[in-house]
Design a protein that fits this description.
The protein is an alpha/beta fold and 338 residues long. The longest helix has 22 residues. It has 2 domains: 120 residues, Rossmann fold, CATH 3.40.50; 181 residues, Dihydrodipicolinate Reductase, domain 2, CATH 3.30.360.10. The relative contact order is 0.15. The radius of gyration is 20 Å and the shape is globular. The strands form 3 sheets. The protein has a 7-stranded mixed β-sheet with strand order 12-11-7-10-9-8-15, covered by helices on one side. α5 links the parallel β5 and β6. The chain binds NADP nicotinamide-adenine-dinucleotide phosphate. NADP nicotinamide-adenine-dinucleotide phosphate binds next to α1 and α4.
């Protein structure tokens, strides 16, 4: 089956997803686009023979030539657009965040539960990264023993002028929040944020770096260094310490050069460079699941849980206090796959 995708929001990542659907992946085509910037929608559609440009997201969702929706607009618009897709009974891939607050994610959960079918996938692409997948396989294998700690680092070379300290949590740490839940197979129960000496490279008003500490339901601790002005490159690290061994993400450099008593490799330029294959795998598996009428990736519950932990971490950032995560038990409708 060819999945005909309608894309809402054709900015940076929307265009990148269109490129992969049309040039890299199999089983999908882009048949409609919408963007609040009509000129941008027109430019993008010009490269997509036969694609319709819709004035509104609602019209795109209703288009009979659209089987599934890809939401890549900005976060505050996601809730309305995902709800429209659910109301139409169409599968929807929504870039993170599912919605900007746990209350908004709850409304999506309510609508999806009422619809009686899991239709939503959230863009937590790290679950599709070969390194994280190998790490999860090593943990699930059990030979390392129970996990006790995870050390993470999330370093960006620099950030745009609109970046705020809060975005280190809501835009950066949200990826470690999801990956920790997925790797440990547990929810996060509390968050604390520590603020070390501020880098002189940080823009005025931005506290950078930060340390986020997450408490897992089983008692393990996850520390996450968030450093968004690290200058030297984009560097994502992860190591899980278990009772009888550890598992860490390997260096992503393709080669190591040794010369003149030194050795060195490449550090990724940015997140696209580091995770390009993960995005490809993520969208290919989504297209395959849509074609098969199933749902396999991180869903509405995962988007909700990430938002609930983000809410707690932002509160911890504001107050300097350890903050418990407030969320209900995972509903049966979102029970994990056996
Ligand atoms: P972007 O370049 O600003 O693109 C967003 C596009 O959506 C813009 O063209 C914007 O138009 C348009 N838009 C805004 N509100 C809309 C609405 N109500 N209906 C339709 N279109 C709307 O942003 P981006 O970097 O691509 O990010 C898009 C989303 O992807 C964000 O939620 C972001 O967090 C997420 N993202 C995820 C990852 C990841 O690692 N998974 C990476 C990057 C981004 P205007 O410019 O006119 O506002």
């Amino acid at each position: 089956m060819n999945v005909r995708v309608g894309v809402i929001g054709v900015g940076m990542i929307g265009q990148d997803h269109i490129r992969r659907i049309t040039q890299v992946l199999t089983g999908g085509s882009v048949t409609a686009v919408n963007d609040v910037d009509a000129a941008r929608a027109g430019q993008v559609a010009a490269g997509l023979p036969g694609a319709h440009i819709h004035d509104t997201a609602a019209a795109l969702v209703a288009d009979d030539n659209v089987d599934a929706i890809l939401v890549a607009s900005w976060g505050p618009a996601h809730e309305e657009q995902v709800l429209a897709a659910i109301a139409a009974g169409k599968p929807v891939f929504c870039e993170k965040p599912l919605a900007p607050s746990s209350a908004a994610c709850q409304r999506i959960m309510d609508a999806e539960t009422a619809a009686g079918r899991r239709l939503t996938q959230v863009g937590f692409m790290r679950r599709y990264d070969a390194g994280y997948r190998a790490m999860k396989a090593a943990l699930d294998d059990g030979t390392l023993g129970p996990p006790l700690l995870m050390h993470c680092a999330h370093r960006n070379p620099s950030v745009p002028p609109y970046f705020t300290t809060e975005m280190s949590i809501s835009d950066s740490a949200v990826h470690e929040i999801d990956i920790a839940r997925w790797l440990f197979g547990e929810e996060i129960t509390a968050a604390t944020v520590l603020s070390p000496r501020r880098s002189g490279q940080a823009p005025d008003g931005v506290r950078d770096p930060l340390i986020l500490i997450l408490e897992m339901a089983g008692g393990a601790l996850v520390d996450d260094e968030l450093f968004v002005n690290a200058r030297y490159g984009y560097d994502v690290r992860g190591e899980v310490v278990c009772e009888t061994g550890t598992v860490a993400l390997a260096d992503t450099s393709e080669v190591t050069v040794r010369t003149a008593n030194r050795h060195g490799g490449r550090v990724p330029v940015d997140w696209r460079d580091r995770f390009i294959r993960a995005y490809d795998t993520e969208l290919q598996e989504w297209l395959d699941a849509v074609a098969a009428g199933t749902s396999t990736g991180p869903g509405t519950w995962d988007g909700y849980a990430a938002a609930a932990v983000t809410d707690a971490a932002l509160e911890a950032l504001r107050t300097g206090q350890r903050t418990a995560v407030t969320m209900p038990e995972r509903p049966d409708f979102y029970a994990k796959a056996p």
